[in-house]
Amino acid sequence: MTLSGNGSQIEVRGARTHNLRSVDVDIPRDRLVVITGLSGSGKSSLAFATLFAEGQRRYLETLSAQARQFVRQLPHPDVDSVRGLPPTIAVDQRTGSARIRSTLATTTEIYDYLRLLFARAGQAHCPDCGLPVSQQSVEAIVDRILALGERRKVMILAPLITGRKGAHREVFEKICKAGLVRARVDGAVVDAADAPNLPRGQEHTIEVIVDRIIVKPGIEDRLKESVELALKHGDGSCLISQLDGENWHDRLYSSRYCCPECATSFPPLEPRTFSFNSPYGACPACRGLGVVPVNDERSSSRAKSARENLFRQPACPSCEGARLGPIARAVTFAGSNLPSLTAMSVDEASAFFTTLSEQEGSRVRECEAPAEPPRSGAFAARQEPRPPFNEPTAPGAGLANLEPEARQAALSILPDIASRLHYLQRVGVGYLTLDRPAPTLSGGEFQRARLASCLGSGLIGVCYLLDEPTIGLHPRDTARMLDVLTDLRDSGNSVLVVEHDEELIRQSDWLIDLGPGAGREGGHLVASGAVKNLSETSSPESRTVRWLTSSFSPALRAPSPPEAGAETETRWLRISGASLHNLKEVAVEIPLGTLTAVTGVSGSGKTSLVTGTLVPALKHLLPVNSARKDEAEADWNTLGVSLGSLTGSGHLDRIVVVNQSPIGRSGRSNPATHSGVWDEVRRLFAKTRDAKLRGFKASRFSFNARDGRCPTCEGRGEQRIELNYLPDAYVECPDCRGDRFNTQTLGIRFKEKNLADVLALRIDEAAELFENVPKIRRVLDTLREVGLGYLLLGQSSLTLSGGEAQRVKLATELCKQGEDRVLFVLDEPTTGLHPLDVQRLLLLLRKLVEQGHSVLVVEHNLDVIRASDWMIDLGPDGGVDGGQLVAAGPPGELASSPGSSLTAQALAASCAKTRL
Ligand code: ADP
Ligand code: ADP
Ligand code: ZN
Ligand code: ZN
Predict the structure, then answer these.
(1) Cβ-contact 45, 17 below 8 angstroms
(2) Which of 21, 92, 106, 612 is a good FRET partner for 656, with 20 to 30 A between their CA atoms?
(3) 217, 235 contact by CB (below 8 A)
């Protein structure tokens, strides 16, 4: 592989985004490249804040002048030059994050194809009585008239009044105004200008005669015009009346759908008929949400609570959660309506469409095969002569009884649906249902769904940027993910992944390692090359290369497992009858005062058990500001927790959920505010002589206090620019230049530093400044201990990586001294963490256990599982095939006799490998 040639590599020069130290790096194109480094070393800064941002900027430059105006406001990535950059597409866990109304099917475009399929090849039914209803095109109506035979006398009429009381004078006036002459009134042809006086009290029927014609060759164009005109006047209906001997015979045609039984008529089916985001398709009762609307979802201040409530609200009584209006719900394809199709899991839907295609295949074969000779014998005589493809429409009835046009449409759309479903299966989310609301997907599931869309798009020559695609994947599924990534590469794309998974790192073509440390100690390129060529000699500073080449094994001693049955020693939390989502009446025991890992393949039910059941149950029993509740009296059913019983909560005082979400939702929070350091700093500032002189209280030194903060940005230090289709961008506040406080407030100083100066300090530096303030010093020291000394005290929480935010939270908890016995719950805490970060996290978790707390982690990282005291494995597989307890016990014991536990098997395999 030569990399020097033109266009064969992306050349980055002088990248200084965030902590990057003027990085020069050449990245081979059309390869699978992995970017590694400790959490906070600068991986995202290179991949997303530099390469993707630059790619996006260049793309926007090609758009309209109006769009370019926005681009000028976008911060330039701080880089001297980037050459050879293909168009970039970021597939991470956050950007383009789920809109409240989107579902798995809409985010993967499968829904767009389904809408097209149902519009073109669906069978409509009357929403009132359920009868099949069809419509005709103008051409089809013309064909019917021509088929009446030459020399046939025909009238083309438009029905105006059908059996209604009244004199209807205005109807005749309208006919005259439209330039038409004759009408048929109660069966008799009259001159519209000379219309009879109709008795008011009687019912009448009035049709206008649009044309009278004799069928013969060459009249097609005139017929077409007349039929169109009749449909226009008849509001989608027209009458064709033919002379048969002495009598006229009428036939009603409709370009709209019209039920022959109850005369309900509705407009032609279009893709938008099936869109729950369009007023044409959405259920009018719930406006397409599928649930009883809680409050106005347009009000942004309430959007958050709307999102939280959305999934606990009762289903809309009108559509029963189907989101679509009655007309759309009454359309079927191959016997299923759209909501019942999207209620299937990806696996089920894939099987459904595969069966259809196979039937279609065999149908074609049967048609081509010579007719079988009639069978002789008793059976043959009694057999009904049954045409092979005329079965009633039922699931799997196939495409055979579709009109040729509809069948053709279906045949052209089905492959697009099938391939997208297939890609979803390949990325390991076959267990998800198509109608799953996107906001309820985990970050990893969401990213994998988007990855499947990328595969489906078939783009080439693109640079894909992925953020840890193995998140949430069981070791069993990592190999499949690798296949998907190499496919993307082999079809002619550059694939750049930020990853920590050892297998994926080893299998990639090229490795770029940033470091050597994190934050200020990171930001350098410490290794770059084909993975197999890298060595400690060539890259002495790279901790990743050292870890890859040495026989690194977890430094932690094997923990001592709690002894089952030793009631006096170990206290247990026991739950039974857990049945949320796919959980099948699960009963588990969690040893308290330990580090316990809940494991299992993706979709096995880990999150449903821990985040969906245990956490809400304990939050109910151990409320933050009021007395604990009696677990024996809790009525879980009424409380909306799918649980039989929970015991042992008496051993706990508090439950703390530590996730990787930003600390605080506004851009105003930062490590200082979250850890409580800021409260102490404010008190300190209020005690200075100047503050006392001016009467400034501690409250003034808060970003939330009107009198103290910068009024322009309201203490944020930056202003938000909203961009269509793109994530919001932020620019420095023009007024305070990012200082966040007004000038009077900034006049107060401690050791010559004002508040803005303090916020700009690294935690390491702040520890020096406040060395004589024990309350502040203690917290800062803990933050340094967990490796965060490089963070700025006032760094906006929105810029912290997930791993950094998680450690800020854990460190804050560690500093809280007290007698409380806490259960810490962490969902995939190793997300975004380098194996060396994982060791640091484990030390922290162990410390919490040593202090007498309990730690429960949902994990698939084998290092964490191995270092746990206890493991609870769910499975055996994902979705409907999961939701059961497979194994429980100390990981070491389970690994030595894995049985059917996929996690124990993976653990055993990796233990064997590390021993080699
Ligand atoms: P990684 O992806 O390797 O975990 P990042 O690239 O996210 O690391 O972060 C590298 C460093 O830059 C970290 O110290 C982080 O706190 C800092 N950082 C990230 N985003 C911003 C930002 N928007 N402004 C300032 N610093 C940032
Ligand atoms: P894990 O955490 O082990 O990956 P989950 O608990 O997230 O598994 O999922 C278990 C099953 O429950 C899956 O079939 C998943 O699709 C389903 N599920 C999870 N969350 C929801 C939800 N909010 N709505 C509907 N189904 C869900
Ligand atoms: Zn509804
Ligand atoms: Zn400001």
Answers:
(1) yes
(2) 92
(3) no
Spell out which residues line ligand 1, taking CB within 6 angstroms.
18-19, 37, 39-45, 519, 790-791, 799-801, 804
Q: What are phi and psi of 538, to 5 degrees?
A: -75, -30
Q: How far apart (Å, rounded) are the C-alpha atoms in residues 451 and 472?
A: 14
Task: Report the distance separating Cα 822 and Cα 810, nearest Å.
Answer: 12
446 membership: H or E segment, kind and range: helix 443-457
Distance 504 CA to ligand 1 centre (A): 23
User: For residue 471, is pLDDT > 50?
Assistant: yes
- In whole angstroms, give the CA distance from residue 891 to residue 910: 12
Asked whether the whole model's pTM tops 0.85, one would answer no
Using CA atoms, how far apart are residues 20 and 42, in angstroms rounded to an integer? 6
Q: How far apart are CA 780 and CA 9, in angstroms?
A: 43
Residue 124 and residue 256 in contact, taking contact as beta carbons nearer than 8 Å: no
Report the separation in Å between the CA atom of 433 and the middle of ligand 2, taken as the mean of its atom positions. 10
Contact 543, 527 (CB under 8 A): no
Give residue for tokens 């074969």.
365
Model confidence pLDDT, tens digit, residues 193-251: 888 899 999 999 999 999 999 999 999 999 999 999 999 998 888 899 999 888 898 88
Contact 558, 892 (CB under 8 A): yes
pLDDT at 528: 97
- Containing 597, the helix (H) or strand (E) segment is strand 595-599
Of 262, 266, 264, 238, the residue nearest 252 (C-alpha)? 238
Q: Are 551 and 622 in contact (CB under 8 A)?
A: no
- Beta strand ranges found along 130-171 (DSSP E): 132-133, 153-165
CA–CA gap between residue 14 and residue 80 (Å, rounded): 5
Query: What is the distance, to the nearest Å, from the Cα of residue 10 to the centroid of all Cα atoms in its chain?
Result: 31
- The closest-lying atom of ligand 1 relative to the alpha carbon of residue 39 is 4
